[in-house]
Amino acid sequence: MTKPVILIPGRIHPRVTGRLCERCELVEIASVDTSELDAETLSRVRGGAVSGRFPASLMAALPNLEVIGSFGVGYDGVDVAEAARRGVFVTHTPDVLNDEVADTALALLLNTVRRFHFAETYLREGRWESEGAFPLSPLSLKGQRVGIHGLGRIGLEIASRLVPFKVEIHYHTRTPRADVPYTYHESLLALATAVDTLISIVPSTPQTAGAIDAGVLKALGPKGVLINVGRGSTVDEPALIAALKDGTIAAAGLDVFADEPRVPKALLDLPNVSLLPHVASASVPTRDAMADLVADNILSWFEEGRPLTPVPETPFKG
User: 7, 144, 209, 313: which is deepest, by most CB within 10 A?
Assistant: First the structure.
């Protein structure tokens, strides 16, 4: 039986290629530019595996494309509208990273509120011995009202981890959920007004772009804390920097940024932020599981005739 040809534009987890190369023919290129490939090769491509961009222009170059496996729960780099128009299935990697991202969100929250990263640096620099005790943290999680912006799979895991901390849990999504006891708010602004801490875990969409703006930050208030483990595009970064500088909010913990891996120097220089280099799902077991699901989706399509985790825009109705 002829092996299906899979195009891999750019870098991807080596476990994906390791899994696929056993049962597929792989065509690897440096980017979405297909100029180095001849028309015959392009016509043989039936699948794609990507960690990043898969634009409409790339799909147009692949007349027999059937499925795209995207590495990550978010898939904003893939033009899913174009894929749907062409009848191409797009898959992603939900659920396998829920626990890791939720754990990171809680760790980032604690780190931001209690300033543990600064405290460790203080100890390592010998200042505990030379200067005395580290200053008391001005904030605490005790008795706080925590709002979750996006109560999907990961948001639910974050909420379940917050319950033992004895905080009030509020949330905002497009529609209220009937399966949770948490307090619902009809808008992000209303949520920010009601809580002390706002945790954002929403995908990158036109609706979420810049949603956490100056107005939302002002509503969060001078003792407010922002945690973002979703997408950097959700936050108006200049507005956040201004809010942190002038005391509009108290602190922020960020794992994602608007222009990764470039982080504004103004954020790096602030004493009231905790910053991580987009590592929420970055453990070997979780990334291996994500890679396996990319490969399993593609193999399932070609061997079983169905994708395992298609995105909602390209649902499988078999």
Answer: 7
Determine the pLDDT at residue 278: 97
- Same domain (yes/no): 115, 263: yes
Structural domain of 90? 5-94+285-304
66 and 173 inside one domain: no
> What is the average per-residue pLDDT within 208-236?
98
Coil vs helix vs strand at 197: strand
Q: Are residues 139 and 266 in the same domain?
A: yes
Give yes or no: 303 in active site: no
Q: Whose structure tokens read 């649902």?
A: 315
1: pLDDT strictly greater than 80: no
DSSP, collapsed to helix, strand or coil, labels residue 187 as: coil
- Of 260, 303, 304, 306, the catalytic one is 260
160 and 270 share one domain: yes
- Annotated active-site residue in 46, 115, 231, 287: 231
Judgement on whether residues 170 and 209 belong to the same structural domain of the protein: yes
Q: Which of 44, 53, 86, 278 is catalytic?
A: 278
- What does the pLDDT average to over 116-134? 97
Find how far residue 117's CA is from the centre of its chain: 22
147 pLDDT tier (thresholds 50, 70, 90): very high
In the residue annotation, 260 being an active-site residue is answered as yes
Q: How many CB atoms lie within 10 A of CB 218?
A: 17
Q: What is the mean pLDDT of the chain?
A: 97
pLDDT > 80? residue 318: no
Other beta carbons within 10 angstroms of residue 71's beta carbon come to 25
| Mean pLDDT calculated for residue range 255-271 | 97
Identify the CA nearest to 283 among candidates 20, 51, 103.
103
- 90 with 173, same domain: the answer is no
Number of domains in the chain: 2
177 carries an active-site annotation: no
* CATH number, domain with residue 82: 3.40.50.720
